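Quick check before the chapter quiz. The format below is the same one you will see on the exam, so make sure you can read both the input and the output lines.
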Amino acid sequence: MNVKRRAFPLAIKAAPDAEGHFSGYVSVFGTPDVYREVVAPGAFAASLAATKAAGRKVPICWQHRMDEPIGVWDKLEEDAKGLYGEGTLWTDVAPYARIAQRGMAAGAISGLSIGYYVVADTFNEAERVRTLTALDLREASVVTDPAHDDARVDVVKAKLAAGERITDREFETVLREKVGFSRSEAADIADRGFKAWSRRETDHPQADPAAAAALVARLSSFSLPK
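Here is the expected output.
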């Protein structure tokens, strides 16, 4: 089971001070993301309780690098808005912590992103929205640009699962990240093949978007020989 990630605009209540202390919302409730997922109130309760009982704290990572912790969340608790956190950056020993501190204070760091396992969820067939009701929180990162998440392969898969069409750029993402083609090779394949296939689908509105999902699944199942 892979760790999932969910990004939010950085909602800082207090920017890092000289000692690296800051506060803000790690996650917010009720807001659909690019995965068409919503975090429900109470989703973090069991995970936070288990972490506390084990005498552990949730790490602050840099860009989701689990081997690059830059601080610790001293306090994490749910309120009406979302998961509120108070953290400390290790500016004395972690170089990226100093970058995060300076960037957040200057407004150049644009988001927080959590890494988690899904424990329980529900799915609304009519709205095609998944509600995450229980999450196992593993880390919460400072990230420079959470908008980059919309180019990830799992977002492409989420769009296909929701019956949405994908773009040639998103198809290129699959070819590069899952199959192993270079950027130029992926662009050439998408330009010559996928665009033609997409035009055919547009000419036949009755075509099932599941065909695109099957195509991506087949491509994702193998990699180029070494």
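If your answer matched, good. Residues 91 and 115 are 22 Å apart (CA to CA).
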